[in-house]
Design brief:
heterodimer; A: about 190 residues; mainly alpha; Four Helix Bundle (Hemerythrin (Met), subunit A); 5 helices; about 0% strand; B: about 600 residues; Cytochrome C Oxidase, Chain A; two-stranded antiparallel sheet; 18 helices; globular
């Protein structure tokens, strides 16, 4: 060992439980890294879309059509509440709070669809101009991603597992922050 | 050395028993890597066949090919390829080569098989995700093939699918109905698969390394795959976003990419207010990093193989790592150089131009380090070494024309000519393909336990490298003479018709080079079953994959995880008993008393 000058700090890798059979234990933090990378990819997608939205403003006159309905603020409040309840569920390992998060996520989605209905009633459809198009696309894609989070929550509730809530919570808070970002970009 | 002996033990856990779980829906990174490589091989055969069809038509545009009419009655009316079919073949050739060969094989294929072995991991971080990524890629390929089989055939909008052509639907031309829709669907599915693969690669590299495998002890291949995966993770979502918008323009009546007041095929288009340039920005924000997703693994493979067969440490390891990262980073800032001719403010053009030229700096560092590695070495000229030297050659040839194209004043003249075709085929196509040839020849013994034939490999190398230069060097001259890309026929233009002999020359070279690829195919399939049996470390290399049997057992390292004591390229260490020192050897001088195969 004389020539060995440096061995970096090491977190022992638990022995494999075998390739395909049974669950494999991962080094600590692996799922967290995977989640952060997923969020980086999702961020890039929304950065691409919102940059397209921002430069589209310069293309011509079809702009500033949309009004902010009060329902949008109600939805935002529901989503913010869901983030708080998610945090409570994670810290207290509490199933009721988890259920509250799940329900408020669903209420938010229902609210978003209701906003679509309001827009349609005022004559703004997907193809009614770039701003309306972007509004539908951005909110619908956010909704689809939130639906993924809801599926993960439903899995956790169904399995009565509050153990892996860490990564789900990161995702959920990110969806919350993403919504605030989209609100800023769309209505500012 | 205790851990050394234990590496040769039986695997603790056996592979799944059923054929389907073991070879088809396998979560084993080694099986998935091989699946990607064979998917790429299939794509390569398809894509090469298409390029030969195009070359046939370009050289002899009025000659009738009755056999081809019998095979493809819709594409060859009167036994001559129709111009629309030429464009359709061109589109699918580009798409299948860029996405399903060049993106898939060097990164997902070899990366999947080799990277976990080289960092001492037992599998990728998320094996099930890895399997899903492969099968998603497979579905994307099926959807792309389906786009050729629907009414109207494959789209004619090229691999870049520029709107308005790609966004208008059937009225814009043949193949732009269902074919274009399926094309966009295929690419969107591919984006999803690729970014999930990238996520897996990065997580695995960051968190699954063996004890002692510090970042600066990772082989340059691992650095290259890591960087390419990072680029892929950040670039593919943007293309996915663009794909969603383009799909909505086609199917939902939106106008993201369609301007007001267009008249197409005599009809006024009802879309209004969008901009086709927006697609170009979204596409090339992905498209330029994509070039580096393709080429970075090739750089890593080349560094690795050059060092191994020069029997010398790679020159400037740290500089190589920094250059790899620099190329990946600058790659995100240069997409505008694809759009000089689309209309761009001169200031933005200059910024993009200077940033593009900046890529030349880390690239030159790499070439310098490769040459310095070769300098004064006792080189072993194996087939994979030859392929790697071919990579260096293409990287220089294609890189220099890149510097020309990076300058707006020159690019405006050369844009959309054969000069560009020659440039990107050399730097992106051939360089990446040659690095894949090198990697296949080099790691084939590890993958299948048998050597590929060296003699056939060298024969294939010499015919191919002479052949491709015979194809692509004249293409530069065609481009400088003003021959435009994407035209099915040049003989109708007086100023181009005198260049026809050169076109014929290129086509003959292409047919010969294409035929020479049969040598490679034969070599692969013959060696799979009849190749000479290979030992654990046939090339006397140093990295972790060579410490285990060929092919590796299901769980890679048996019952003991490897421990790494040294850097990846310790060749010709003074005082060591052999001219290579495995990364798992604690002390090469002390090791001379024991054995470490």
């Amino acid at each position: 060992m004389a020539t060995l000058n440096y061995v970096p700090p090491y977190v022992p890798v638990p022995p494999s439980d075998g390739g395909d059979e049974g669950p494999r234990r991962l080094p600590p933090g692996t799922e967290r890294i995977g989640m952060l990378l997923l969020l980086a990819a999702i961020s890039m997608m929304f950065i691409g879309l919102t940059s397209a939205y921002i430069v589209s403003e310069a293309f011509g006159p079809v702009w500033d059509q949309l009004t902010v309905y009060p329902l949008v603020w109600v939805n935002t409040a529901v989503l913010l509440f869901s983030s708080c309840s998610m945090e409570l569920a994670r810290r207290r390992n509490s199933l009721p709070w988890l259920l509250a998060t799940l329900v408020s996520g669903l209420i938010f989605l229902a609210g978003q669809i209701a906003v679509f209905g309001l827009l349609a009633r005022h004559g703004f459809y997907l193809s009614s101009g770039r701003q309306a198009s972007f509004y539908y696309v951005l909110t619908a894609l956010h909704g689809v991603h939130l639906l993924g989070g809801i599926a993960a929550l439903a899995w956790a509730v169904f399995r009565r597992r509050t153990a892996k809530l860490g990564v789900i919570a990161i995702y959920w808070h990110f969806m919350d922050a993403l919504w605030l970002y989209l609100l800023l970009v769309i209505f500012l | 050395m205790a851990q050394h002996a234990s590496l040769l033990h039986q695997p603790v856990h056996s592979a799944p028993r059923s054929f389907i779980r073991r070879y088809i829906f396998s979560t084993d990174h080694k099986v998935i890597g091989i699946q990607y490589i064979f998917l790429g091989l299939f794509s390569a055969v398809l894509g090469t066949a298409m390029s030969l069809l195009m070359r046939l038509h370009l050289a002899w545009p009025t000659t009738q090919f009755p056999l081809l009419e019998r095979l493809f009655p819709n594409s060859f009316p009167g036994s001559i390829m129709s111009p629309e079919s030429y464009l359709a073949v061109l589109t699918i050739h580009g798409t299948i080569m860029v996405f399903f060969l060049l993106t898939t094989v060097p990164l997902s294929g070899f990366g999947n098989f080799i990277m976990p072995l080289q960092i001492g991991a037992r599998d990728m971080a998320f094996p099930v995700l890895n399997m899903l990524s492969y099968w998603t890629t497979f579905v994307a390929l099926l959807v792309l093939i389906a786009s050729m089989l629907v009414e109207g055939g494959a789209p004619i909008s090229g691999w870049t699918a520029y709107p308005p052509l790609s966004a208008l639907g059937k009225i814009a031309g043949p193949g732009l109905g269902a074919g274009q829709t399926l094309w966009i669907a295929s690419i969107s599915i591919f984006c999803l698969a690729s970014l999930l693969t990238a996520l897996n690669f990065i997580t695995t590299t960051l968190n699954m390394r063996a004890q002692g495998m510090s970042l600066m002890r990772m082989p340059l291949t691992v650095w290259a795959w890591f960087t390419a995966a990072t680029v892929a993770l950040l670039a593919f979502p943007v293309l996915l976003a663009g794909g969603i918008l383009l799909m909505l323009d086609r199917l939902a009546g939106t106008s993201f990419f369609l301007p007001s007041g267009m008249v197409v095929s005599g009809e006024v288009v009802s879309h209004f207010g969008g901009s086709p340039i927006l697609w170009q920005h979204l596409f090339w924000f992905f498209g330029h990093p994509e070039v580096y997703i393709v080429i970075l693994p090739g750089m890593g493979i080349t560094s690795h193989i050059l060092s191994t067969f020069s029997r010398k440490p790679i020159f400037g390891y740290r500089a190589m790592v920094i250059a790899t990262f620099a190329i990946g980073l600058i790659g995100f800032l240069v997409w505008g150089h694809h759009m000089f001719a689309s209309g761009m403010s001169p200031f933005a053009g200059m910024v993009f131009s200077v940033l593009t030229l900046t890529v030349g700096v880390p690239s030159a560092i790499k070439v310098f380090n490769w040459l310095a590695t070769l300098w004064g070495a006792r080189i072993r000229f194996t087939a994979s070494m030859l392929y790697s030297l071919g990579f260096v050659s293409f990287f220089v040839t294609g890189g220099i024309t890149g510097l020309l194209l990076a300058q707006p004043a020159i690019d405006v003249y050369l844009h959309d000519t054969y000069f560009v075709v020659a440039h990107f085929h050399i730097i992106m196509g051939l360089a990446a393909v040659f690095s894949s040839f090198a990697a296949l020849q080099f790691w084939f013994p590890k993958m299948f336990g048998r050597y590929m034939s060296e003699a056939l490999g060298k024969l294939h190398f010499w015919i191919t490298i002479i052949g491709v230069y015979a194809i692509f060097i004249p293409m530069h001259f065609l481009g400088m003479a003003g021959v435009p890309r994407r035209y099915a026929q040049f003989t109708e233009f007086a100023y181009l018709s005198r260049l026809q002999p050169l076109t014929v020359y290129i086509s003959i070279a292409a047919l010969i080079t294409g035929a020479a690829q049969l040598i490679l195919l034969f070599n692969i399939f013959w060696s799979l079953f009849r190749g000479e049996k290979a030992p654990a470390n046939p090339w006397e290399a140093t990295t972790l994959e060579w410490t285990i049997s060929s092919p590796p057992p299901h769980d890679n390292f048996g019952d003991a995880d490897p421990i790494v004591y040294r850097g990846p390229y310790e060749f010709s260490v003074p005082g060591a008993p052999t001219d290579f020192t495995l990364q798992t050897v604690p002390d090469p001088v002390a090791a001379s008393s024991g054995s470490h195969e």
